[in-house]
Amino acid sequence: MKLFKHVLLPTSSMALKKVNVLFDEQIIKISNSEIEIEEPCEEIDLSGRILLPGAIDPHCHIVSDNEPQAQITHISRLALLGGWTCLAELSYRNPQPIFDMRNLNHLKSQIDASSYVAMPFWGNVEIENYPYHAESALELWTRGALGLAIFSPSPNPAITELSFDEIMDLFMDIYESDTAFTFQGWDQENHAKPSDAAQRDAIRKILRRMQENPIHIPRVNAWETVEFVNTISKRSDISFSMNILNLMQFYETRVNCNVVFDFGTEEERQEFLHLVRTNKLYTVSHNAGICDEKQEPLFACEAPDLMPYSYLWMLSELWKKRKIPLATVIKVVSENPAKRLGIYPEKGCIAVGSDADFVILDPTVNTIMPLNDHQEMELEGHIDSVWIKGEMAVEMGEILERRGGYLPRMHTPKRRHNKRSWI
After folding, report:
1. Interior CA angle at 301 toward 297 and 307, to 5°?
2. Which pLDDT value is given to residue 293?
């Protein structure tokens, strides 16, 4: 066991409270007073440092046909350095999509052999395997997949494109299972090419066919889409993610991003500011993967280069500079995605029984983040160390050991009508 002494813990207000935390692989006890134990214990005094949960990215696009294990290793190492302790894989170009347990076990073995962070993943549907596609989908769900990814059109030639009627049939076939879905695509019937409007029309078609199962939109690129999803979320269990590079651009941080976000008018930009402050920006994602210029904007991956700095940027820019409550920032980067993925409260929070996945923030030291055009930005704070399952994995910017691997979904996100929505 290990004991953090005199560590600062975020609260629901702007204040921090000083606590002691006892843990092994999971958190055993959190107390404002001294923790007395009889067993041998390693004591670590973190006076003045802040204890945060590891960050969670709800969808990366790492696995493709070009050395998948090397890609898993490279991107998960970058993520770990930045305090991202969990990356959910949503494969766009995996030549062996996750259609059944054989595919699942193959990807699991690659992750277990290569990843530096915890990695759950989304499954796929092979509609041509009718009528057995529903059985395969349900088996993936019951064996720990995060849910089923639906693309229209399909960005992967190995995944057969589903029409909206086939998507509706799929929803009805497995309605009683509470299976979660993620949807990405655009309306090809009413639009000649992909656009933000074409994406919104596709989302509308999906929602008209939903049977109350949870659904997640991996990447929105316009304020109008955000506003629409937030409105419809009152009646449907729907969530969305925004690319973190677009968020950086909104706050005038000079970074490169393959897809531009349309923030609309100045009035709408002010509404977006309010959305961030009130926890209506549900999750952020890097959409990290191997970039391909041929990809459509809705399916475009982003370079993972800033993953070692992005969590710290959220803390520095939103919490320290913009005075957004630290608890709100943590919800966006950790708690909300954990709930959406069905891995909360094991992941995504600091509570008794949760996994001991920690980021130790030193607020007295600043960090230099590289920008485009050989520019730099000074961030307030420094990631002192990163811990996974109670063991230090990163110390002062150096990776000590690989402690990642496959992570199955552990819970079923509740449907809206159960009055226990995921957020």
Report:
1. 135
2. 65
Residue whose C-alpha is closest to residue 238's, from 272, 280, 286, 176: 280
Confidence (pLDDT) at 413 = 66
Task: Write the CATH number of the domain with boundaries 55-348+408-418.
Answer: 3.20.20.140
pLDDT over threshold 70, residue 422: no
Q: Residue range 216-235: average pLDDT? A: 90
* Distance separating alpha carbons of residues 163 and 128, to the nearest angstrom: 12
Radius of gyration of the chain (CA): 21
From the list 211, 113, 139, 201, the residue with the least C-alpha distance to 169 is 211
What are the backbone dihedrals phi and psi of residue 390, each rounded to the nearest 5 degrees, phi first? Answer: 80, 5
pLDDT of residue 236: 78
Nearest to 24 by CA among 9, 42, 2, 46: 2
Strands 84-89, 55-60: pairing is parallel
Asked if residue 131 has a cis previous peptide bond (ω within 30° of 0), the answer is yes
Total number of residues shown for the chain: 423
CB 264 within 8 A of CB 224: yes
Torsion-angle region of 235 (φ positive above 0: left; ψ -120 to 50: alpha; else: beta): alpha
Fill in the amino acid letter for 115: S
Q: Which tokens go with 248?
A: 């950086």
CATH number 3.40.190.10 given to 2-51+352-397: no
Task: Tabulate helix, strand, coil % of the chain (nearest 5).
Answer: 30, 25, 40
Domain boundaries along the sequence of the chain = 2-51+352-397, 55-348+408-418
Q: How many CB atoms lie within 10 A of CB 397?
A: 13
Token pair in block for residue 180: 């979660």
Question: Rounded distance, CA 229 to CA 234, Å?
Answer: 9
Cα(175)–Cα(193) distance, integer angstroms: 32
Instruction: Say if residues 237 and 413 touch (Cβ distance below 8 Å).
Output: yes
Token code pair at residue 165: 């009627």
Residue 45 CA: distances (Å) to CA of 10, 11, 314: 18, 20, 26
Report the phi/psi class of residue 405: left, alpha or beta, with left for phi > 0 and alpha for psi in -120 to 50. Answer: left
3-state SS, residue 157: coil
Regarding predicted confidence, which is higher, 211 or 193?
A: 193
- For the chain, first and last CA: distance in Å? 32
